[in-house]
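C-alpha cells
________________
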Amino acid sequence: VEIVAVHGRSPERLHSLNTSFPEVATFTDPEQMLREVDTDGVIIASPPAFHREHLEIALRHVSQVLCEKPVAHSVEDAEAMARISQHAGANVYVAHHLRHQPAANFH
C-alpha cells in the first residue's frame, strides 16, 4: 500500500504531516484531492459524522473504499451509504483497527 494523499481539515496539521512525509500530497478539500491524485482506492478515517459525505465524494472518483468503524453516525446514514455503494457498483469495506487495544499489542 502506498499512501499518495491525505485530506484533513487543519492546514497546520497537514503542513506538519507534509514536513515529515513530503512525498504525500495534502489537501483540505477531499473533492480536489480525488480530482488531482491518481489513486486506486480511498480509506475513510474521518470522524463518523463525515463518513457519508466522504463516501459520496470518494465514489465519484474510485470504486474501492475502506471505511473505518463505526461506519456511520446514524442508521439513516448507514442505510444511505449502502444504497449509494450498491448504486455505484463499488466495493466498500468496513474496517476496525485494534492498534490501541492491549490484546493486539504484540511488541
User: Anything to note?
Assistant: The first strand starts at residue 5 and ends at 7. The CA atoms of residues 1 and 52 lie 24 Å apart.
